[in-house]
Write a structure and sequence with these properties.
It contains 9 helices and 15 strands. By secondary structure, the protein is of the alpha/beta class.
C-alpha cells in the first residue's frame, strides 16, 4: 500500500494546572507500512480518560510520561487497513492503544478483536472496555460487597462510576452517587437506579449529609476523585470498610499538592482497608469480566451513556471538558465513520 499521511496530536508543552488547547499540536506525518506481526489501522473512535492527565505530566506515575513531540496515548477502536499478522484481515474491527491519531501501526499482540454485532463498536472503549473492566474488578473483586452494604461512588456519572453503581446494585447494595451536576445525578437515580445522589457543589456539609443517609456508615467507597469529597466519606466509614482508589481527578490539575493525608484516624478507628487499583493488574481475567458485562448489557441489566465529539482536531478541547466535568458517561471522539 502507498505510504499515507497521518494526522496526529502530539504534546507541545507540559500543562501547569488545567491543560490548555495550546499544550497540544496537530501534526501531519507519513505512516510506515506494517512490518511482520503488525497491522495498519484507521482510527474510528478515540477514548478520552482521566488517567491521560497523569501521562502528560512528568510527575512520578505508574507509566512513563508522554514525551514532548510524541503522540498522546489513548485507547482506540480501529479498522484494519493492511495486515502483516496472522489472524487479522483487512476490515476487521479491533481495540488497542492507537493514540490520538488517524492512522497507527501496532503489533497484533496489543489488539483485541471487536464483534460489531455484539454491541456498537464504541462500547469497546466504555462499558465493554477499560471503564467496564475497572468497574467490574474494583467493585466485585477488590471491594467485595455483600448484599445490604452501603456503597458510595464519587464521580458517579463518569464512565466508571455509573457502571460501578449498577454493578453494586446487582450485588444487592445500597448505592449513593456523588457528582457535581443535578442533571447527572438525575440520570444516575432515575435511569441507573442509584438509591441516593448528592451534588457536592451544592452540599457544603457533605459529611453531615452522608451521616444522615447512612447512619451505620459506608461499607464501600469507590474513590475516583480524592480531596475534600474523600475526606467527608472517610469520616463516615463503617467497621471494616473497604476503600478502593481508582483515580484522584481533583488532584490532577493542582499546581501545588493538596494537604494530606488527614484521615488516618478514621481508617484506624474503623479498621478500614484502603487499596489502590489499576485495571491492568487484572488483565488475565478480562475475558471473564467481558462475558458477564456483555451478558448484563444484552439483558438490559446495565445501561451506559456516551459523550461523543466529532473530529480528531477536537480531542484537546473535549479532553479539557472531560477534566472539567462536562461529560455524562464515557467521552469518545469519533475520528472516522
Amino acid at each position: 500500500m502507498k505510504q499515507q499521511l497521518n494526522r496526529k496530536i502530539t504534546l507541545k508543552s507540559r500543562p501547569s494546572g488545567m491543560p490548555r488547547v495550546e499544550d497540544f499540536e496537530l501534526r501531519q506525518e507519513p505512516v510506515p507500512a506494517p512490518g511482520p506481526g503488525q497491522v495498519l489501522l484507521q482510527t474510528l473512535f478515540l477514548s478520552l480518560d482521566p488517567y491521560m492527565r497523569g501521562r502528560i505530566s512528568d510527575a512520578k506515575n505508574y507509566a512513563a510520561p508522554v514525551g514532548l513531540g510524541e503522540v498522546i496515548v489513548g485507547g482506540t477502536v480501529s479498522r484494519v487497513l493492511e495486515s502483516a499478522a496472522p489472524g487479522f484481515n483487512k476490515g476487521d474491527i479491533v481495540e488497542g492503544p492507537g493514540g490520538w491519531q488517524e492512522l497507527s501501526v501496532l503489533a497484533a499482540g496489543s489488539l483485541r478483536k471487536v464483534d460489531p454485532d455484539l454491541a456498537p463498536p464504541s462500547t469497546a472503549l466504555g462499558v465493554l472496555g477499560m471503564p467496564g473492566l475497572t468497574a467490574y474488578f474494583s467493585i466485585l473483586h477488590v471491594a467485595r460487597p455483600i448484599s445490604g452494604d452501603v456503597v458510595v461512588i464519587s464521580g458517579a456519572a463518569g464512565a466508571v462510576g455509573q457502571l460501578a453503581g449498577q454493578i453494586a446494585k446487582l450485588a444487592g447494595c445500597i448505592v449513593i452517587g456523588i457528582a457535581g451536576s443535578d442533571d447527572k445525578l438525575e440520570y444516575c437515580q432515575k435511569t441507573l437506579g442509584f438509591d441516593h445522589v448528592i451534588n457536592y457543589k451544592k452540599t457544603p456539609e457533605l459529611a453531615s449529609v452522608l451521616t444522615k443517609l447512612c447512619p451505620a456508615g459506608v461499607n464501600v467507597y469507590l474513590d475516583g476523585v480524592g480531596g475534600a469529597i474523600s475526606q467527608a466519606v472517610f469520616g463516615n466509614l463503617a467497621f471494616k470498610a473497604r476503600v478502593v482508589i481508582i483515580g484522584q481527578i481533583s488532584q490532577s490539575n493542582l499546581v501545588e499538592p493538596d494537604l494530606g493525608p488527614r484521615s488516618m484516624r478514621y481508617l484506624l478507628t474503623s479498621r478500614a482497608r484502603i487499596e489502590g487499583f489499576l485495571v491492568g493488574d487484572w488483565q488475565s481475567r478480562n475475558s471473564e469480566a467481558l462475558l458477564r458485562l456483555s451478558g448484563w448489557l444484552k439483558a438490559g441489566q446495565i445501561q451506559y451513556s456516551e459523550h461523543q465529539v466529532d473530529g480528531l482536531e477536537n480531542a484537546p478541547s473535549a479532553f479539557i471538558g472531560m477534566l472539567s466535568g462536562a461529560n455524562l458517561g464515557k467521552t469518545i471522539v469519533r475520528v472516522a465513520d
